[in-house]
Amino acid sequence: MIKLLANDGIDPVGKQLLEEAGFTVDTTFIPQDELPVKLQAYDAITVRSATKVRQALIDACPNLKLIGRGGVGVDNIDVEYAQSKGIAVHNTPAASSASVAELVFGHLFTGVRFLQDANRKMPVEGATKFNDLKKAYAKGIELRGKTIGILGFGRIGRETAKIAYGLGMEVLAFDLYPSVNEIELALGGGVKATVPVKYASKEEVIAQSDFISLHVPFSEEPVLGAKEFAAMKKGAGLVNCSRGGTVDELALVEALNSGQLAFAGLDVFDNEPTPRAELLQHPKISLTPHIGASTNEAQERIGVELATLIINYFKQ
Ligand code: NAD
Q: Start and end of every D-isomer specific 2-hydroxyacid dehydrogenase NAD-binding domain (predicted)?
């Protein structure tokens, strides 16, 4: 019997598929420091972003045949080393794209309507002053008609564009390797439409957009720092639902404090799960703890995709 450790959990539908295929699926969480000993009893491990599968762990577990990543980024796995040892590494790149894109708009609507601050400052019983009751700051703007600049026009960038088009926004895209020229929209009511993609240089996207949404992979150097924030439209907003490290967080705080940027919505951070103090409780920042893929639908798709990959691998 093939033994699988789903160390960061797996959706029940995926677990059931694996069990029906004859796998033993263990969902008990094993802390990182105990894995080198305890993982030796398993043939495969699945992780999300929390558990790290580094060279030392791989070396300690010669029985390991497969590492599955429920999600996209594999920066918590030493992929090349695993593959050099004959261990298969699989992720589920497309399963969470729509959920991440929807969270982008959660942050965008939050930013333009001050929801993060409004939540904290709801009038308390007995408040009488006008400013306590209806904050002057709460005069927001609409997204409709505005331009969203999408840096990184891959799976999630394109899903973000689809929602933006549906809202009546303009979309400017930049990608190091542009791969599509048009976007197929499946709107409600069975309406379908095809929209040509408007590509521009990174500099043009940064200078011409009312909001920037970042959808690039992890990079050693931030993609957006002080220089880029200074080049954005005054009062622009930023959303980062990609990866920690892609934005210079201290430069971002400075740009918000100076009024150069109006707001930021962040789902990913240099330090996870505990972002740096400067970001917490900042009135112009809306924060979520890396929950882009945390929807029932995405988790089920991830679980099913991962289970199918694992079953097919061991069937060979
Ligand atoms: P993808 O590979 O489909 O798309 C990434 C795109 O970025 C590619 O088209 C690539 O050519 C482009 N790119 C790379 N570096 C670039 C750069 N410096 N400038 C411009 N373009 C660049 O990936 P995806 O599935 O769209 O995922 C995008 C990001 O979202 C990844 O960082 C992924 O880890 C992250 N993600 C976050 C969550 C979350 O919970 N917040 C969930 C899933 C994925």
A: 107-292
Could you confirm whether 297 is annotated as catalytic? no
Q: Is 48 in the pocket of ligand 1 (CB under 6 A)?
A: no
Residue 283 CB coordination number (10 Å):
12
**Cα-to-centroid distance, 245 and ligand 1 (Å):** 13
Spatial contact of 8 and 22, defined as CB atoms under 8 Å apart: no
| Model confidence, pTM | 0.90
**pLDDT 10s digits, 193-231:** 999 999 999 999 999 999 999 999 988 999 999 999 999
Tell me how crowded residue 250 is: count the other CB atoms within 10 A of its CB: 14
**Greatest CA separation for the chain:** 71
Query: 97-131 burial by CB neighbour count: b if 16+ within 10 A, else e?
Result: bbbbbbbbbbbbbbbbbbbbbeeeeeeeeeeeeee
Q: What percent of the chain has pLDDT over 90?
A: 88
- Which tens digits make up the pLDDT trace of 299-315? 999 999 999 999 999 98
Q: Which of 304, 66, 235, 237 is nearest to 224 (CA)?
A: 237
Known catalytic residue: 243?
yes
